[in-house]
Amino acid sequence: MRRDGHKVxxxxxxxxxxxxxxxxVAFKGEVVDFVAPGTDGSFEIxxxxxxxxxxxxxxxxRVRRTDGSxxxxxxxGGFVEVDKNxxxxxxxxxxxxxxxDATRARGAYERAxxxxxxxxxxxxxxARNALLRARNRIxxxxxxxxxxxxxxxRD
Length: 155
Prior knowledge:
Order of helices and strands: EEEEEEEEEHH
Shape: elongated
Number of strands: 9
C-alpha cells in the first residue's frame, strides 16, 4: 500500500533472483528488490537495473518478494551479476536470519577472539575474518529481534 492509499502491484516490477552458495541454492524466484552490502557500499537492485558485476562484503542481504514480504540473510560475501532483469548472487555463505543459531554464532565469535589473541597457532587474517562473519550473524539476528542479548531465541 502506498502512502496515498493506492495498492502497489508488485508483479509489474519484478525480476529473477538466484542466490547460490557452494552448498545449496538459498533463494530462487521473482522479487521486487534486492539490497546487498557491496564492498564499495550498499546498493539496491530494482527491475530494469543496468547490467553490472560487483563484489559483496560481509553483511546483511534483504530480498523483497512479490507479496511485499521481506527475507533477510547474513552473508560472508561473494559476487553479484545483474543482467537483463536477472540477478545472480554467488555467495560464500548466505543464511536466512530465521535459520541462524545465535548460540553457535556466539561460540564462533568467542573462538575467533581467542584465536586472534593466540597468534602463534592461528593465521590472524583467518581469525579476523571468522570474527567478522560471526559478529555479522549475531548482529543480523539481534537486529530482527529474534534473540535477546544473551543469544536466547525469543518466543
